[in-house]
Amino acid sequence: MILPVLKEGNDHPQKVNRYQRLRIEREANYERIWLQSEDPFPVHPVWFNRCEQFLKNHIGDGHHVVDLGCGKGEMTECLLQWGKKVDAVDISTNALKKVKAHSNLKTFREALPRTKLIDSTYDVVVALDLIGTMEEEEYRLFFSELARIGKRDSLALVSTPFDPKTEGGIERFLALFATEYELIDLEVAHLKWTFGSKLLTKIFEGMRRFLLAERGITHAIAVGRRKRML
What we know:
The chain is built from seven helices and seven strands. It has helices at 13-36, 45-58, 74-81, 93-96, 139-149, 169-177, 198-205; strands at residues 64-68, 85-90, 105-109, 122-128, 150-162, 181-191, 217-226. α3 (74-81) links the parallel β1 (64-68) and β2 (85-90). The longest helix is centred in the first third of the chain and has 24 residues, at 13-36.
C-alpha cells in the first residue's frame, strides 16, 4: 500500500482540502468531547500499567520526550517523574487545560498526521493508541511525522488496539512501523475491555480498522529506533 506524502508548496488541492477538512472536524469533535466531560477517556488500569512498564523499560537515557495525544496527561506525569523534559501534545485545548503544570513541561495544541512541531527535536516519541484514530490513507503520513520530529537516532514507542478477529492486523501495523523504524521490541496482549459509556463506544467505533471486539481487544506496543536515511 503506497500512500501520498504531501510536500509543502506542492500539495494537490483536492488532497489538501480533504486533510484540512478532516483536521477541522477532528478538532471540533475532540474540543466538544473534552468540554462536555471531565474525563471522557478514562484510563484502563491494565492498559496503563502495561504501557508505563514498557515505556520505562525502553526509554533509556532519552531526555527530551514528546507525548503525542497526551489527553489530560497521565503518561506525561510518569515521564516527568522519571526526570524527563516533556512536550505534551494534544488536538484539544480543553484536554491540555487538565494537564498539571511542571517546570519541565510544555504543552502544544497540534493534530496528527501533520504538526508544526520542529524537525529532529525529540530523543523519544511516544504515540499511544493514536494511529487507530487516523484515516487509512493517513497511516503512512502518521509514521513519517513521528520520524520527522525525532532526532537521528530517536526512539518511538507506538501502541494500538486491534480487533482480535481482524486477520493480519498486527502484521499491517508492523509493516507500517518498519517504514520508519527498526523494531527493537514488541509486546502483544489480549485485554478484556468493556465500554460503559455510549460516548466511548461511539468514539471507538471510528477506530474499527485496528480494533474493536465486543469481548476484548488485542493490544500491541512496539518500540523502535529511527532508521538512518542514506
